[in-house]
Amino acid sequence: MISYVYGWFGVGERSIRTATCAVLRALAQSGGLKRTQQRELILETFLSTDHHVNVDELIRRVREIDPTVGYSTVYRTVKIFLECGIAEEVRLADDTRRLEPIDQGQHHDHLVCIRCGQATEFFNCHLEMAQKQVTSAYGFKPVRHSLKIYGICRNCQQADPSPDSETEP
Q: What are residue 50's phi and psi, to 5 degrees?
């Protein structure tokens, strides 16, 4: 089994390349995995995306750089990322499985537009405190949580300001 790797993303001024090498070194040491240029490329491409990426989009981006990278290589590498805590799957507006990097200590939640599918990451300390109070009141020990608020983003509201049938009473 591969050990978990934490605290690698958002490491101050370190470059993505430096973080990539550190993660792959840790993976190679803990799981006996080979550190390959293709895995480095897949991780670097994943970390450089500016949004939640699905596996097909990741494959397309990787193959734009190196067309010799196979589909199975990307799928196996993504599975490793999920198993070792580098990435997690999220499902947003279109219910497509997407990936996002896990940054321990940098939790965030999502605002998801039901019209355009845009996902906005946010952090609110008051919400986090309320969740801690609720779990404590019920004697519940949380392991992780995910909060997604579905609605209509500012851009979609401005594009179509009419009352919306999608809103709840």
A: -100, 15
Instruction: Report pLDDT digits (tens) over 41-77.
Output: 998 888 887 778 889 999 999 999 999 999 999 998 8
CATH topology of domain 16-101: Arc Repressor Mutant, subunit A (1.10.10)
Among 83, 90, 56, 52, which residue's Cα sits nearest to residue 71? 56
- Length of the chain (residues): 169
| Structure tokens given for 161 | 């300001």
In the CATH scheme, what is the code of domain 109-159?
3.30.1490.190
**Residue ranges per domain, the chain?**
16-101, 109-159
Q: What is the pTM of this model?
A: 0.61
Q: Tell me: the pLDDT tens digits for 121-162?
A: 888 889 889 999 999 999 999 887 878 888 999 999 999 877
